[in-house]
Amino acid sequence: MSDLIAWSDDYFWGAMVVLKIFAVSLVMAVAFGLIGATAKLSKSSIANKIASAYTIVFRGVPELLVILIFYYGSAITLTSIGRVFYPQTQFIDIAPFWAGAFAIALIVGSYATETFRGAFLGVDPGIVEAARALGLSNLHTFFYVRVPQMWRLALPSFGNHMLSLMKDTALISIIGLEEIVYVAEMATAVTLKPFTMYMIVALIYLSITTVITLVMMALEKHSNRHLEGAL
Amino acid sequence: MTFDIYLIFDSIPKMLAGIGMTLHLLFLSSFLGLILGIIILLMRISGRWYLSFPTFAYIYFFRGTPILVQIFVIYHGLPQFEAIRDSVFWPILREPFGCAILALTLNSGAYVSEILRGGYLGVDKGLHEAGKALGLSTPHRFIYVTTPIAVRLAIPAYSNDFISMLKATSLASTITLLEMTGVARTIVAQTFAPYEIFIAAAIIYLVMTWFLQRGFGLFEKRMSRYIKLSEA
Q1: B37, B99, B144, B209: which has the fewest Cβ within 10 Å?
Q2: Which CATH number fits domain B5-231: 2.40.37.10, 3.40.120.10, 1.10.3720.10, 3.40.50.150?
């Protein structure tokens, strides 16, 4: 118990890193999902093909491998670019935080692409026509009419994507991000109590995923409030 | 930086040596996970609280935590206890392979039981009643009426889960197992050519995913043949 109290500080800051990376990659994943879904639904066949390749690749390759490619790949690319300008450059890498956040956002974004595409198709075309008739521009129709309508349909699946995004953050410890799995590794080396230390990590993740599930349930209820009277 | 295409061709045979381990992990833990999932499902739908309550806790825990953490709790964590080091399971839990199989099995059992429950709940109530009217006993109704249709309904979700399992086997590389990602990481450590090696590994994974998807597609078609017959 005294070991846990001694390490509680590190676990707290580790959990903060997890939440930070979750927030950053969630925003990016939603953006990638919206871009991907728009590309898949567009009339341009090039955009269709690029979006299909994106979803096939990022849904078929293990998350860990994507993170490794981004981290080591970006390091080797940046180092060689650096050598062009400063030949004495030893080694440049991007922080594991950004490499990891970008990698898991691309992965979850590829799942969100499929979800958003289906949800966009579920929006009543009459509503879009009504927006056109009212003189809204394409951009306004997209952000004020189609996205809010689509969002309600996409929420249940998107909640699951958020849970996998949260769980994927654990993988970033492999490339050296100092989050809770990494803290547990350090704590184990000192206290020699691996089960206790890793179980704390599991319980922290469990409580965060529980909160996400509860928030998603409340959001679903909120987004369907206009149906309550009708039912 | 040079992109050495020959390195890809050189490394693919080496990585194929890791495919055996990847497939071994995938099929063994999926098979055990399927059996575990069926047991968990039966406990959950039994209607007895002392059977269904533990399954809630189990599913909640394994679906709410990352697989990586589950693998670490089992591989690094369990030897903390004297009782486990003295138990008959120690020869299995001492090896990273046994730990990876245990973690992946427990994880897939939780997901599979939820998928099968979805299939089970999707079976039309009228079919149960028809079976009853024909005088079939409860076990007969479950085996001959509910199961075939529930299996058919669960295939699309199960195939997704199977592919997630393929991707999850890559995590075994974090506990020193030399499956495909593990082999790729070893080669990268020797050559420091991450793009060539990791992309080669990614291509192999994509090919495997494609084959699995095709296989499940054919299986689904075969299980749906009753729909075609009734439409004709």
Answers
A1: B144
A2: 1.10.3720.10
